[in-house]
Amino acid sequence: HLPERIPGHWRFNGQIDRYDAPATLWLMCAISPLLSLGFQFLPRLDPKRENYEKFQPYYDFFGPLVPLLLLLCIAVTLSESLWPGQINVARAIGLMVGVLFLIIGNIMGKVKTNWFMGFRTPWALSDPDVWNKTQRLGGWVFFLSGGLLIPLTLLAPPTVTFGVFFVILFGGIALTYYKSWKWFQEKQGA
What is the pTM of this model? Predict the structure, then answer.
């Protein structure tokens, strides 16, 4: 029942800027179980795999979130393919991303040293104390970015919403990297 072309990508303002063949939905559906499988195998490849036990419940909670977000994006695509204009896509995606960032922000401070999850700066990977401080600060950056994105999504125009979100997010990420380096330097007595 799908049309010959379905929405494939939206601009920040919610306007469709690319159409794809309906078969791309099958590809999106196939990615989800592959992501889930990847989350199961990544710890086995990690040189610091013993640390996963220290934050396993959070890792197990996070693993299904990415496929769930992908499933919600598939639902939006299907809805907009079959009943165009029924969903405010910019608002829906903004809310989903905001909630995801709130969740990630809450989890990050509990993540222990590893090579696949968290702010993996060279300085944080070199020192457990720097790692913990970096993850806590990064968690606050993500949490505040998500917490800001949700009301902005509901109240401001989409281009303003995403502009403010990215400025805050990237500024916070830059601050996190700088502080990680600074904490490491302080620890080394430099």
Answer: 0.88
